[in-house]
Amino acid sequence: MQAKVAIVTGGAGMIGHATAECLAAAGADVMLVDINAAALAEKRDAVAARGVHVETFVADVSKAGDVAAYVARALAVFGRIDAFFNNAGIEGKLGPTHEYDEDEFDRIIAVNLKGVFLGLRHVLPVMLRQGCGAVVNTGSIASERGLAGACAYNASKHGVIGLTRTAASEVGPHGVRVNAVMPGVIDTPLLEAMLRMMFDGDVPAGKRALGRVATLDRIGTPAEVGEVATFLLSDASSFVNGAAWAVDGGALSTIRH
Asked: Which of 70, 84, 153, 245 is catalytic?
């Protein structure tokens, strides 16, 4: 990733920040995008400590104007975009499909699915003009399986894989690759928020229970997702396109617990 420029959305979150650290360690300059300005400033210093150029941009990924603005800023500062980790997402509330709140459904779809679409809509033209570039969208093991009580989240993450495969088929012939990572149970604040709802506030018990979903018998770390995303954004994965890579400790590989 030496001399390359990467944009990471959800850059103030655990997976976004871990991936930005991996990209920076590999030599890339990075723009961190997030809606949380305070957390973004904190994460910027940690990534910049790697010795690369780091920019931040406060944006709502569900708003086309904000997405266009962060892309324009990246081009103004760096002149190009080589790698795009299209990662920002939210978990939303849990509830049965037949009782799910419509406004909450719309909110989750807006960030997790429309936000990914808007990222592709505004970054891909840049990469197509360059004749090169790599995108990694963030799906989930919920992209491949049902999760009771999470209809909006599941629908959004299934949709991310559809967008990934469609975009890959369109831009691959022009030197641009689009792939996705599907994190499993990863130790993040997003996971903890879901576990509080699922396990009546007992987060440690939830982590033990969900860790058994993976054949490795544990939950994963943000850095383990970041390493895979960085590989897919690098030239080392030059013949990988339209793929959805599970980073889940083997959860999708079997029927277990």
From this structure: 153
- In angstroms, rounded to a whole number, what is the distance separating the alpha carbons of residues 155 and 145? 10
CA-CA distance, 130 to 79, in Å (whole number)?
11
Tell me the C-alpha distance between 8 and 31, whole Å. 6
pLDDT averages per 10-residue partition of the chain, 257 residues = 96 96 97 97 94 97 98 98 97 93 97 98 98 98 91 97 98 98 91 84 90 92 98 98 97 80
Residue 257's pLDDT is 56
What pLDDT is recorded for position 195?
A: 85
Token pair belonging to 110: 């807006």
- Catalytic annotation present for 153: yes
Q: How many CB atoms lie within 10 A of CB 112?
A: 26
* Interstrand relation of 83-86 and 176-183 (parallel, antiparallel or unpaired): unpaired
Structure token pair of residue 34: 């997030």
Q: Find where tokens 């960030």 sit.
A: 111
Among 166, 13, 179, which residue's Cα sits nearest to residue 84?
A: 179
Structural domains of the chain in order of their starting residue, each with its CATH number: 5-186+221-252 (3.40.50.720)
pLDDT at 82: 98
| Nearest alpha carbon to residue 242 among 184, 189, 176, 186 | 176
Cβ contact 183:252 at 8 Å: no
Contact 16, 88 (CB under 8 A): yes
Residue 235's pLDDT is what? 97
Cβ count within 10 A of residue 128:
15
Give the whole-angstrom CA distance, residue 166 versus residue 61.
20
